């Protein structure tokens, strides 16, 4: 529950020594390390190569430019809640 400074977090990261697994789990979820367009230590960034944090940081630092065509493209329809309707046979009206 104590607040950890950035330098203390990085010192623990470099030493790779934790008293228990619970301390490691708390340390792991306390902060994420993000490299622009490279990697991130968030749960999605560990599974995939590039996550939204690394792309967002690259956009903020002007390392990646978004084209105007991409901004104007709609993302698509949202799904309606509920179960899909049952498909009727072709010969019934």
Automatic annotation (TrEMBL):
Chain spans, region Disordered: 73-93
InterPro entries reported for this sequence: Znf_SWIM
Keyword Protein transport annotated: no
Basic residues composition bias: residue spans: 76-93
A molecular-function term among this protein's GO annotations: zinc ion binding
Positions of the SWIM-type domain: 32-62
UniProt entry keywords in alphabetical sequence: Metal-binding, Zinc, Zinc-finger
The protein, known as: SWIM-type domain-containing protein
Protein source organism: Rotaria socialis
Source taxonomy: Eukaryota, Metazoa, Spiralia, Gnathifera, Rotifera
